[in-house]
């Protein structure tokens, strides 16, 4: 994608971006895979970091679209989001690893491929995402995005791991993927 195409893509409704990211290939320093799970967050959403407005911790969410918003969850795990309109972001929950699998295994201390990037913390550990990536444009090195080519069965479900607005149907997954952070109900 060109910078203009990427800017237009991230200026869409946050749920459209979250849905359309399924099947997109994400690399960080040449390591990564296909996005198979994402979640949308908006300023009107009590589960969003932007719900209470601009703060030092969430400033990147209010910046230009197409940037990485990286934060620590519960002080333990890094989480990677893509900024859309101000206060809107998409959490990248899981990847199907395709490149750099041995390096991911070393970083994670896990052999099972389905567990390498199945969850936002695991994904960030496998790709070596840190706070240093916060605010970086996702269309420039060290990131690389390759648009989805279609053919994915996108399923919508409630978000997971939340205490607020968990029932919101803003989790998007490749319904045929074995690489999700949590299986779909039923």
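Sequence proposed for the structure above (186 residues):
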């Amino acid at each position: 994608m060109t910078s203009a195409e990427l800017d237009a893509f991230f200026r869409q409704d946050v749920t459209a971006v979250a849905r359309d990211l399924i099947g997109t290939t994400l690399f960080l320093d040449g390591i990564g895979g296909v996005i198979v799970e994402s979640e949308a967050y908006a300023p009107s959403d009590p589960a969003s970091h932007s719900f209470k407005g601009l703060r030092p911790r969430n400033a990147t969410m209010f910046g230009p679209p197409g940037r990485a918003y990286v934060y620590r969850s519960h002080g333990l795990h890094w989480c990677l989001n893509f900024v859309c309109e101000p206060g809107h972001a998409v959490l990248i929950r899981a990847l199907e690893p395709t490149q750099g699998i041995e390096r991911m295994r070393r970083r994670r201390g896990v052999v099972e491929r389905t567990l390498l990037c199945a969850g936002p913390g695991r994904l960030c550990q496998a790709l070596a995402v840190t706070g240093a990536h916060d605010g970086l444009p996702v269309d420039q090195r060290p990131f690389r995005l390759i648009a989805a080519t279609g053919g994915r069965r996108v399923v919508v479900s409630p978000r997971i791991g939340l205490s607020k607005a968990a029932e919101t149907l803003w989790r998007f997954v490749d319904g045929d993927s074995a690489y999700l952070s949590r299986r779909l109900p039923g």
